[in-house]
Amino acid sequence: IKITVRNFLKGPTTDPYPFGETFVPDDLRGKPIVNEDACTACGTCENVCPSNAISIKKDGDTYTHTIWYNTCCYCGNCEFFCPTGAIFLTNDFHTANVEEEKYGFTHIAKIQEVECTMCKAKFVSATKELLDRAYKNIDEKATKLSNLCPSCRKKSAFERVYR
Predict the structure, then answer these.
(1) Can you tell me the distance from the alpha carbon of 75 to that of 29, in angstroms, rounded to the nearest whole number?
(2) From first to last of its 163 residues, what are the pLDDT tens digits of the chain?
(3) Residues 30, 37, 154, 159: is their CA dihedral positive or negative?
């Protein structure tokens, strides 16, 4: 009786989840999300995903980056191998959903192609995050080069070398 009274006065010892907030560790590997502004649609995350939960499809001048949470095993390969740091795991662990929503339980990001400033061809430009990782100091030249498609960049580099 003494233990019962003490536990009654002390209150519950478990978290009130799902009816209230609960403790979540900072380094918990939860649902991955994509920063559209940093993504270059390179496909690295799609290739390293062991559960095929990531899909990148081109539709016109837009790339659709889809993460299927029902398939994701939350291993963190996508975050580790992403060259721009655009995809990262959150500490959101809420993955329960009803059966009718299982095919819509996704994260979708849209990555737009831009026009080359020289030839007007469409391409996905290097993002600021990628330039920050590639160069110590981003100057005006690097920014201008990131607005050129790969073939115009080659032409520009060739002209600079052989002038």
Answers:
(1) 8
(2) 888 888 888 877 777 777 777 788 888 888 999 999 999 999 999 999 999 999 999 998 899 999 999 899 999 999 999 999 999 999 888 777 778 887 888 999 999 998 988 898 898 888 888 878 777 777 777 777 788 888 888 887 656 655 5
(3) negative
- In the chain, where does DSSP find H-type helix? 2-10, 44-48, 77-81, 128-134, 140-146, 150-161
Q: How far apart are CA 94 and CA 101, in angstroms?
A: 14
Phi, psi of 46 (to 5 degrees): -65, -40
Prediction pTM value:
0.76
Asked whether the beta carbons of 92 and 99 are under 8 A apart, the reply is no
